[in-house]
Predict the structure.
Amino acid sequence: MDAFELNADKRSATGRAENKRLRKSGRVPAIIYGGNGDPVKLSFNHNDLVHHLDNEAFFSHIIKIHVDGGETEEVVLRDLQRHPAKPFVEHADFLRIVAGEALRMHVPLHFVGEEECPGVVDEDGVIQHNMNDVEIECLPRDLPEFIEVDCSKLNLHDSVHLSELVLPKDVQLVELMGEEEEQNDLTVVTVQVPRAAVELEAEEEAEAEAEAAEQAEAEDAEEGEGDGETGEDEDGEDK
């Protein structure tokens, strides 16, 4: 896959005051760590970084960072800190990659075939996404941008589990790598009855149960009144 590219400046000063100064000047403090090298503190042009973040593939892609116009680091984005109220990136963490060393990454899921899904087209169901991404393990050269989930043949109440995903060669799902594979075989997507229909059915069942209970109470009351209207005395004569 083609790598994204970013230009970065090294930074030596650290601390809140320095990071605040960088942000005011339109730059984002960041760090590269891991692999076979020492951590490197950097800063990026904010608008340049945000432009790349608009591309979904940036989050699961190899990124080439050119430091001070010279040395180049190959990394993946590990963490991103955004301002809680404003559209600003406050800090970025990048993990250095090593060519022959496996890495773990979250990659997005792309759901395809929803428009022709029988459970939706023919049975009036709705598709529910239980996951939007999955964690995988692979070598950097095998890192996929996304994983497709085929929904084209799902009927009502059908689902797709992690074990049913079609993965690229030499890519593994982290959830299914342990001893509890069956327990971790989570549902990725399912076709369900629309929530409104479920709620309507529940309301109708509740109303039917209430009517049945009222009718039973009325019948019990009528029987009680009938038992108290007539009777016989000890001599067998009517009272």
Summary: The chain has four helices and 13 strands. The mean pLDDT is 87. The CA atoms of residues 111 and 149 lie 5 Å apart. Residues 103-193 form a domain with the RNA Polymerase Alpha Subunit; Chain A, domain 2 fold (CATH 2.170.120.20).
